[in-house]
Specification:
This protein is an alpha+beta fold. It has seven helices and seven strands; from the N terminus they run αββααβαβααβαββ. The chain is globular, with a radius of gyration of 18 Å.
Amino acid sequence: RKVFRLKEGPAKTRQRLEKHYCILGKTLGDALLEPTPIWIKRIEKLRRERDVVFTGHAHITGGGLVDNIPRILPHNLKVVINRSNWQRPPIFQLAQRIGEIEQQEMDRTFNQGIMIASIVSENAHIISDYSSAFAIGHVEARNGSETQVEFQGEFQGE
């Protein structure tokens, strides 16, 4: 919210919220009010119908991927996330541009369109054939004091 708030006051903020942004295909207000999908029923269906073994789930909220994924990892493991595996929603591109936010801060603060990250076995590639889930990276051994979330690549289309 801070990114889109204007110092000129509520009237200017309302104008920005009512402005149509081509990158969003709608007004900023409408984009910010889109509901978050509830994923648990889809996850449970995959577990039951496809025998997918989930090792853990991280709901990506404040703290972004950087703070939330380590909560489900042992200290000796890390995830390597490849941004080129998905196209982040345009609202994040707009926020980054308007707020002049560095990529590292975007990764630490926002979910970048990944609302839930699940750790699954390697043979769980069948998920993408069956649902809107897709692989964003992989788990590997962590050396010493390395970060538990490593990013590679650029987002699709950017």
